[in-house]
Design goal:
The complex is a heterotrimer of chains A (about 325), B (about 325) and C (about 500).
Chain A (H helix, E strand, L loop, with lengths): L1 H24 L6 H26 L7 H17 L4 H25 L4 H19 L6 E2 L14 E2 L2 E2 H19 L1 H11 L1 H6 L4 H26 L2 E2 L4 H17 L8 H20 L4 H20 L18
Antiparallel strand pairs in A: 1-4, 2-3
Chain B lengths: L7 H20 L6 H26 L7 H17 L4 H26 L3 H20 L10 H6 L8 H19 L1 H11 L1 H6 L4 H27 L6 H4 L1 H14 L7 H20 L4 H23 L7
Chain C lengths: L3 E12 L2 E12 L3 E6 L5 H8 L7 E6 L2 E2 L5 H7 L1 E4 L11 H5 L15 H15 L15 H13 L5 E5 L7 H16 L3 E5 L3 H7 L2 E6 L2 E7 L5 H9 L20 E9 L6 E6 L3 E6 L5 H8 L7 E6 L2 E2 L5 H6 L2 E4 L3 H5 L6 H5 L8 E2 L2 E2 L1 H14 L16 H14 L4 E5 L7 H16 L3 E5 L3 H7 L2 E6 L2 E7 L5 H9 L6
Parallel strand pairs in C: 3-8, 3-9, 6-7, 7-8, 13-20, 13-21, 16-19, 19-20
Antiparallel strand pairs in C: 1-2, 1-4, 4-5, 9-10, 11-12, 11-14, 14-15, 17-18, 21-22
The chains are: A mainly alpha (about 325), B mainly alpha (about 325), C alpha/beta (about 500).
Chain lengths: ~325, ~325, ~500
Amino acid sequence: MKSGNIKAYVMLIAVISVIVLFALINRSFLSIANIEEVVMRVSVLAPIALGIMVVLIVKGIDLSPGTSIGLLGILAASRIEQGTSLAGGLLFALLFALIIGSLNGILIARFNMNPFITTLAMMFIGMSMEKVLTQGGLPIYLYGDSSGFDRLYRVSIVGIPLPIVIFVLIAAGLYILLEYTNYGRRLYASGMSIRGAVNAGIPVRKYFASAYIISSFLVFFSSMFIASKVRSGQPLVGQSYLWDAIGAAYLSTILSDTKRPNVMGTILGVVLLAVITNGLTMLGLAFYWKTFARGFLILFVLLASTMDSTPVWMKKRENGAETV
Amino acid sequence: MTKKRIQSTQILPIGIFVVCFIIFSLFSHSFLSLYNMKSVMELVTFVALPAMGLAIVMLTGYFDLSFVGVIGVSSVLMIELVNAGVPPVLVLVIALIASVLMEALNGFLIIRFKIHPWLCTIATMLIYLGLEKAVSKGDYISPQGEFFNAVRFSNILGLSAVIWIMIITVLIMIVIMSKTTLGTYLYATGGNREAAKKVGINVDKYAIIAYSTAGVLSWVSSFCYVSQLSGYPPEAAYINQLEVILAVFFGMALSRKGVINIWGAFLGAAYVGFLASGLGLMGVSSYWIKLVEGLLVVFVILGTSMKNGSLVQLD
Amino acid sequence: MTEKVLEVRNLSKSFPGVKALKQVDFHLNKGEIRTLVGKNGAGKSTLIKSITGIYQQEEGQIFLNGEDVSHFSPEKMSHAGVEAIYQENDLIPYFTVGESIMLNSEPRTSSSLFINKKALYAASQRILTEELNSTIDPRTLIRELNVSQQQIVQIAKNLVKKPKVLIFDEPTAALSAKEIDNLFAIIRDLKTRGVSIIYISHRFDEVFALADSITVFRDGMKVADKDVRETTHKEIIEIMAGEDGVEISRERSHRKAFTEESVLTMADGGNSFISGISFELNRGEILGFFGGEGAGQQKLAQTLYGMLPLETGDLRVFGKPAVITSPSKAIELGLGYIPRNRKEEGVVMDFSIQENITLPILPQVSSHGFIQRSKEAGIALKQLQDLAIKAPGTFTNVRNLSGGNQQKVVLSRWIATAPKILILDYPTIGIDIKAKSEIYRILDRLTENGVSIILITPEFEEIQVLCDRVLVMRQGRIVKEFASHDISEKELLLHAIGVSDEY
C-alpha cells in the first residue's frame, strides 16, 4: 500500500490543519467539552459509515440509513413508552434492522435490482413509516422513563462512554472480519471480480446480500445511541448522518492503492467529517451551510476518487490479445 | 406489422389505474367532480414537469436527483428578485439561466470527470438545497406584487394558467422528442452509446443537452410552484421527489416499447396525482399514501428488472 | 483491368506478447468478392479491425482507391466508404427499423427543424425493397425481428452511406439455409452495383459458392491469394495448415500409458448450446477439444463446471452419477476450471498472489474461519517455486504480473485444490514461448500424478505436444475422434470446418 500510505499521511495532515484552523477561529473548539462532543459524534457516525463501506466492497450503496436511523429509534422508543423493558425495545429495533437489511439484500442480490434505486425507495418507505408511527412527525419523548434508555448514551464502562466502547468493538471486529476471515476474503473477491469469485466456487449472491444485512445491523447501534442522546425517537434525523457516512466510506477508497474500501480509511474520513461538522457549528453558521458543505465534500471526494483512472462505471473494452 | 396492440406488460398498470379510478369514484362522489379534477391537475403539475426533466435525463442513459435543489434555488431566486424590484421578465430570464447552468454542471462533472451520475447528483442536490436555504434563510418566503398573483388566479378557458403551462410543455416536449433529431439522438445515446458514437453522434454533447433540458423544465416547474403556492415552502420540491421518480417509472411500465418517455412521465404523474387525491378523499392519511408510493416504486422496478435484467448497472 | 479499391501494404500489428499481423500485403479488387480464410488466431479479424481503423497498426499503409487512409479513425473510415458488419449488431431494440437505418442521416422537413417521418420511412423502405429485396416493414421495432432480419437491417444501415467496401465477418453463424441463400443474393446484388466485398468465413461450401477469390492467412501472415476457380477445398486446407507431415520430434514425455479407468463419462449430453455429446475421460489422460469459434467447446466446459445446466443426457464422475449445478459443486467433485478470460474470470485482479491461490481452499488455510496467513504464504510459496512464477513475493498484486505469470497463478490455484479433473480453456493465449513450455511441463507432471485433463485449444502444436486424444467439435457436436499419433493438422481442420472428401 505504498502510495496509499502517502495519501493517508496527507489526509492526517489535512485533518490536523482543519482542527488547527477551527481552533484559531474559535477558542472553545479545543475545549474538553467540545472534544468530547466530537469524539462522541465520531463514535456514533462511524458504525453507519462502516456499514456503507461494507456495501461499497460489493460495489453497491445503501441509502436506507437516511431513514432507518430515525425509524429504529422511533420503534424502540414507542415500545419502551408502552412499557416494554429496555432489552425488549432494543431487541424489537434490532429485529427490524435485520428485516430492512434482508429486504435490501434480497431485492438487490436475488432480483438484480439497482442498489441506488432500491435503497432510495426503502428510504422513502421508511420516511412514511416514520411519519405514520409518529402521527405526523412528532418525536416520541421518553422523559422520566425508568427503562434506562436515556442512559445508553451516557453510561460509562471503566470510565469510557458506552458509545465509544461499542464503536471500538465494532471497528476492531469488522477489521478482523474483513482482513482475517474466510468471509472477509470471499466478500472482497465477490466485489472485486464477480466472475473470478464465481469461478472459485463462491456463492456471490449470498455475499452480496450479507453486506446489506451487516449495514443495517451496524446502523442499529448508531440509531440507538442517537435516540438515547435526545431521549426520544426522532423522525428525519438520519439524513445528515447518511451523507457524512457516504463521504467517509468513499474517502477510504481514495486512500487505498487498489481502491479497496477499508476500515482505517473510513474511520479517518469519519473523523474529518465530524471535525468539519463540529467546526461549522462552532462558527455559528446557519444550519443550511452545513448541507452546502456536505454536498461539496462529497463532490470533492468523488472527484478525487475518480481522478486517476477510468471509472468502473464507464469502462471500454480493451484491445487485447484475446481478440486476435 | 405492429399495430397499436396493447402489450401484456401494459395491462397491469392500466388495469390498476382503471380499478383505482372506479373505487375512488364509488367511494367519494366528489372525486369525479370538475372542481376536484381541476385541483388535482394543478397539483399534478408539480410532479409532471420535473418528471419530464428526469425522464429525458434517464432515457439518455443518466440520472438526476438534484432537480429538487434546482427547483428550490430557482424558486427562491424568483421570489427574492421580484421582491427586490427587478422587472418580472428579467427575473424569469435570470432564473432560467441559473437553472440551466445548475443542471448543466451535473452533465459537465459527469462527462468530464467521469463521476457516477447517482453520486454526483446526490452531491449537487445537497449543494443546491443548501443554496436554496441560504437564500431563503429557511423561511417560507412569498413574492410581493401582482405578477405571480395574476398567474395564480388566472382563468383561461376555465383552466388556470399552470395547467395550460403543463399542457403546452407536454406537447412541446413530445414534439421535440418524437419529431426532431434531438429527440432521436438522445434516445440513441441512451439506447446504445457505442452504436450512437459509431454513427457519428456526439454523445457527450447530448448528455449535456439532456441535463440542460431538465434545467429548463425545473425552471418551468419552479414558476408553477411560486405562482400556485404564492411562495415557496422550504424544500417543497424535495418533498415531492418520490412522486416524481415514481411517475417516471410508472410511465415506463405504461409505454408500449417499455421505454422511459415524456408522455409516459406525464401519465405517470397524473396517475400518482389521482391516486393520492383518491386515497385522500377516502380518508387515508398522507403518510400512508407516501408509503404506498414507495412500495409502488419497488414493485414497478422489480417488474421491469425481472423482465429486462438490471435497469441501470451500477458497475 | 483489375483496379484495386483497397490495398494494404506491409501491415504489422502486435499486442502484448503476440504479433498478430506480420508485414501483411493484402488487396481487394474493385467489384470482387474476396474471402479471408485461416485458422483461429491467424489474423483475419485483426486485419479487418486495422482496416476499419479500430486498431492502429505499428507499420504499414492502407490505401482506398489510391488515397492514403492509413491512420483514419473508425468514423473517418466509415465516412470514406468502408463499412464492416460483425456478428453483434449495434441496433437499439426499441427503435424502429426505419429509425435505425436512417440514424444520423434523417431527412428533414422544409423548415429543417423536424424530421420528415414520411420521407424517412420512404427512404428506408426504398433501401429495403430495392437494394435488399426485403419485405421488412420499416415501422417494425428492432426487437420484434429475428436474427437474420436484424442482420438485413444492419446491412441497410451501412448502405445508407453508399459504401465502396463492405466487410462481412462470419455473417452466417446464426442463419438458416434459406436465410443464407437470401444473404448471398443480397451480396451478389451488391457486387453488381459496384460494391467490393470482403467476406470472412470458415465454411468452405459458402466460400466456394460465393467468392471470386480467396486469401489465406496463417500465423499472422498472408500466405496465398487464389482465384476460386483455380483451386480446391483440399488445397486451401493444406495452405491453411502449413507444412504438414514433418514429424516434429517433439519432446513429449512418454506419458505412462494412462489407465483405462474412466474418471468422467458423458452420454448424449445436451443443452441449448451442445447436443449429443458422448465421450470418456480416462485417468491421467490429456483429452483435447478442437474446433472453430462457436463450435461449442467452451459451452461444454462451462456445462461440466456447473455454469450452464445439463439438460439432457447423463454425466458420471468416477463412476457415480453426478449433477453439477454450480461451480462449488464441481469443485467438491474434484474439478477445476481455468477459464479463457484470464483477467476477468481467472484471477481476482488486485488480490495478491497468495490471496488468489487460496481462494477456493480457504477452509484449508484457516481454523474456525480465521485465515492463517503463514499457512497461506507457505502454500503460495511452494506453488511459486514449483511453477517458477516470477514475482517479488507472494504478496505481489497479480495485476503487476505478466500474462504468463498470471496464468501460472491461476494454475497454481487449481493445483492447490488437489484436483482430479482439470479443464483448461485456451490456456496459453497471449503467453510468451518460454512460459508456454513451462506450462506444458506442469501439465505433464500433473498427469503423472493421476490428474486427468480436458484441454480446449485452437493451437495445433499444443494438441500435438500435449494431447493423448483429440475430439473435434463442430456446431455443438462432436464430429470425430483422433488418437494422438494419428493427427495431422489438415485432418483436424477438415473436420472442424466440415469439408467432405469430394472436394
